[in-house]
Amino acid sequence: MLTSKASLVQIKGIRDGLLITFGEGEWSELVSYLLNQIERDRGFFKGARVALDVGNHILHPAELGALRNSFSEFGITLWAVISNSPTTERTAQDFGLATRLSPVKTERTIRETDTHMLGEPAILVQRTLRSGYRVEYPGHVVVIGDVNPGAEIVASGSIVVWGKLRGVVHAGAEGDEDAVVCALEMIPTQLRISGVVSVSLRRQGKPVPEIARIESGQVIVEPWVYKEGGK
Amino acid sequence: MSATTITITSGKGGVGKTTTTANLAVALALSGCKVVCIDGDIGLRNLDVVLGLENRIVYDLVDAVEGRCRLRQAMIRDKRVPELYLIPAAQTRDKSAVSPSDMVRLVDELREEVDYILIDSPAGIERGFRNAIAPADQVIVVTNPEVSAVRDADRIIGLVEAEEKGPARLIINRLNPSMIKRGDMLTSEDVLELLAVQLIGVVPEDEAVIISTNKGYPVALDGKSRAGQAFHRIAQRLRGKEVPMESFSEKEDFFSKISRIWRSGGE
Q1: Same domain, yes or no: A60 and A126
Q2: Which residues of A touch B196 (CB under 8 A)?
Q3: What's the rounded Cα separation, in Å, for the pair A51 and A53?
Q4: Which domains, from first to last, does chain B contain?
Q5: Least CA distance to A146: which residue of chain B?
Q6: How confident is the model at residue B246 (pLDDT cuts 50, 70, 90)?
Q7: Hey, which residues does A183 pair with through a beta bridge?
Q8: CB contact under 8 A, B196 and A146
Q9: Deepest in the core among A91, A187, A210, B139, taking most CB within 10 A?
């Protein structure tokens, strides 16, 4: 457990990863203090899943976005923001972050996980991404709408586009080779999964939903067909 | 009287923003509206040339903003039409001479006096573009049926949405029907499929436009050319009239012709 002298920022381990609690004070100072801590203990924080308890601080989207970006540079995944302010909670939800820690699991709830999928961080983008837009997220990205040429999505997980995918997408951006990209119409300018790049071919005929994944070091794209019992 | 302010923009240069602004202004003025058009392209002004008013400029937009003249003095009246005025851009300054709030102030001063204020935006997405859309009530994006122009239009439409000036409406300019028949040009359907915005008009490619631009005599003035007529129809739509959309892009190959004849005969 790492605690600062003045208890400005407390970091402790919880069941879901790390919980960072912010005390009173200037937000920018608290953040730079925290980032210094992380810088010093890079190894400890790398790959961590982090929840923030920001107390009474009111976070603007820009501040939250900046912090999340700094975290991802250290390989830290931000998954939740707990706040006393409804505005901040809404901001966090806009970023696709949780605003509650999951309740402590009892024997019974552990049994439940056998039948219930555990969630993974994902963001839902409910609009068409036009040229010049960029979505970057340390998790999965789901778009309801088109991704036009000139738009970009970078996700550490998978990317699902419920619409036409014509822009640039990079799934598994932090090296996850199991990440997939699916779209109702798959005509990306460029498609990358992990470190593998592919460019789509011009196709004829009626478009069908497709899924792209890595198979033996290459990106393969197949029509999406429902199979009994999953893939 | 409270004017509707319409900004004409495109992202890419050379697609016909200035020609569109000039011709819509003329068409609206000929239909009885009082129109002011403002050249937002400070440092690279063109609208005065296209309208043939170049030699009458005394004061310009920057003079009015910086208080060297009254706004009325910067308004040049086009004598060929009842109520059409131009506020020209300064040629010897650049975009930073005017701020978005200057533009809002200037347009607010005009609102009570006219029916339509048309603003010709410069190409690009920087200061000049922001100046031009700041006072807009409506935004018209002009594009050509070319991949690069459509790509820039998409970006601009996104920026217009982000500025909460949307939804922008679209004019497809310089459509070449014979190239479309040969399958060598994007059709308006292709363009709309990507941009997903409301189409307000299609202007066919027309040599008359180039000739008229060089003469400073907008095609909409006589209304005989195909492009001139297209601009008149767009002006009617701006005024809220229902005018059927022209179709230049019927791609009728042998098979669809046969099937059409067969279908109509079979019913």
Answers
A1: no
A2: 128, 146
A3: 7
A4: 4-266 (3.40.50.300)
A5: B194
A6: confident
A7: A161, A210
A8: yes
A9: B139
Residue A131 has φ and ψ, to the nearest 5°, of -50, 135
- How many domains is chain A built from? 2
Residues from chain A that touch B159, judged by Cβ atoms under 8 A, are 132
Whether residue A52 is found in the same domain as residue A22 = yes
Q: What is the mean pLDDT of chain A?
A: 83
Q: Is B157 in CB contact (< 8 Å) with chain A?
A: yes
Asked if the Cβ–Cβ distance from B158 to A131 is below 8 Å, we say yes
pLDDT of A139 strictly over 90: yes
B211 touches chain A (CB under 8 A): no
Among B150, B151, B195, the residue to mutate for chain A (most A Cβ within 10 A): B151
CATH number of residue A18's parent domain: 3.30.70.260
pLDDT-based confidence at residue A97 (cuts at 50, 70, 90): confident
The answer to whether residue A98 sits within a structural domain is yes
Task: Please write the tens of the pLDDT for every residue from B66-118.
Answer: 999 999 999 999 999 989 999 999 999 989 999 999 999 999 999 999 999 99
Q: What is the mean pLDDT of chain B?
A: 91
Residue A30 or residue B192, greater confidence: B192
Q: Using CB atoms and an 8 Å cut-off, which of residues 161-180 of chain B contact chain A? A: 161
Residues A67 and A162 in one domain: no
Chain B nearest C-alpha distance from A69 (Å)? 22
Query: Locate tokens 């009994």: which residue?
Result: A228
Q: What is the CATH number of the domain that holds A161?
A: 2.160.20.70
B229, B209 Cβ separation under 8 angstroms: no
A86 and A149: one domain? no
Distance CA A27, CA B165 (A): 33
**B30 or A55: which leads in pLDDT:** B30
Residue finishing a domain among A108, A132, A149: A108
Q: Which residue of B has its CA nearest to A129?
A: B158
For the segment A148-183, what is each residue's pLDDT rounded down to a tens digit?
999 999 999 999 999 999 999 999 999 999 999 999
| 3-state SS class at B259 | helix
B158–A contact, CB cutoff 8 A: yes
Looking at the structure, tell me whether residues A101 and A126 fall in a common domain. no
Mutate: best of A126, A135, A148, partner B, most B CBs <10 A: A148
For residue A150, give the nearest of B154, B159, B161 by CB distance.
B154
**In this structure, are residues A54 and A31 in contact, taking their beta carbons and an 8 Å threshold?**
no
Q: Quick one: average pLDDT of B171-197?
A: 93
Q: Which pLDDT score is estimated for B18?
A: 97
- Sequential DSSP letters for B7-23: EEE-SSTTSSHHHHHHH
| Residue corresponding to tokens 């540079």 | A73
According to the model, what pLDDT value does residue A102 have? 64
How do A140-144 and B116-120 pair as beta strands?
A: unpaired
Cβ-Cβ contacts under 8 Å, B194 against chain A:
148-149, 166
Q: What per-residue confidence (pLDDT) applies to A109?
A: 42
Domain range for A146: 122-223
Whether A113 is in a domain gets the answer: no
